[in-house]
Amino acid sequence: MDSQSLKFYHIHGFHSRDHLDTYFANKPDKTFLHDFINLPLETLQKLMGKGHIQGRVLIDISIGSLIHHLHPFCDFFKDIILLRLHERCIMEINKWLDTRTGAFDWLHTSTIITELQGRSEEFEEKETKMKEKNTKRDEV
Known about the structure:
The protein is an alpha/beta fold. Helix content is 44%, strand content 15%. The protein contains six helices and three strands, in the order H-H-H-E-E-H-H-H-E. A three-stranded parallel beta sheet has the order 1-2-3. It starts with 8 loop residues before the first helix and ends with a strand. The model has no long low-confidence stretch (mean pLDDT 85). InterPro entries: NNMT_TEMT_trans, SAM-dependent_MTases_sf. Belongs to the class I-like SAM-binding methyltransferase superfamily. NNMT/PNMT/TEMT family. Keywords: Methyltransferase, S-adenosyl-L-methionine, Transferase.
């Protein structure tokens, strides 16, 4: 393979919305939903439920515009700082945080985590709490 044809995420970026729509959207076929959303949320919820991890600030450095994995941490950290490697990812997260038209809909992840916590009726409150915890977004 010609090394000139390779793309590097931190240099060339990628279309974060396509990434979200392909792997994380709540679509009828739900091909990737279990592997990319349900299983990680179940694992993190079990880990956080033991009460061994807590603090004032959580710094998250994740690929793309992903935020769903932060739901279990909302109850154990005062602030969450999101660091991303590309400005497009920050813009996509800001659209969601500001509840702008066209923002990616993460509500299905709030529903999943509240069901895991046995509080399925509180999914909208969970989404609001998640938005309030994200106090800073920045590019690395």
